[in-house]
Amino acid sequence: MTDSDPHLLGPGLLPTPFTADEIRDATGAGRLIRLLLEGPDGPMGEHVNRFSDTDEEGATLARWAAEDPSAVVSNRVTWAELQGHAAFDADTTSVSTVRLSTPLGDLTCRRYDTDDGVFWFSIDHPGMPVQYESDGLRTTVLSIERD
Length: 147
Known about the structure:
By secondary structure, the chain is mainly beta. The protein has helices at 20-27, 79-84; strands at residues 31-39, 42-52, 58-65, 73-78, 94-102, 105-114, 117-122, 131-134, 137-146. The longest helix has 8 residues, at 20-27.
């Protein structure tokens, strides 16, 4: 992170759509995010991300396929790590502001076109992209629930 702008994590990187503090504040005491995964042949299933045990530094992130809630993968993440997932190379990424129709409604998003895919971050929903496409797969946020 640079001293002048908490959205800039380092030289050669574009500003991230959200700071670590904005992600922490939006997550609050916890949040549950439902995702739809789609491939070239259609839907592949739903997944769930749950943030719990939040504090100033981070949270516990549990992830599982909706059809098998017994197969939970869980680990501790920091808000800074989550912000870092949206730190894209300035030389190979373009950014635009667009409207995107999603299950969450029509959203104003920052669209990042990268070498690894396309990521749409809703200005009103600090955190993970509300939609992203990479390697022929699309992931879309279906709902966001606060604990």
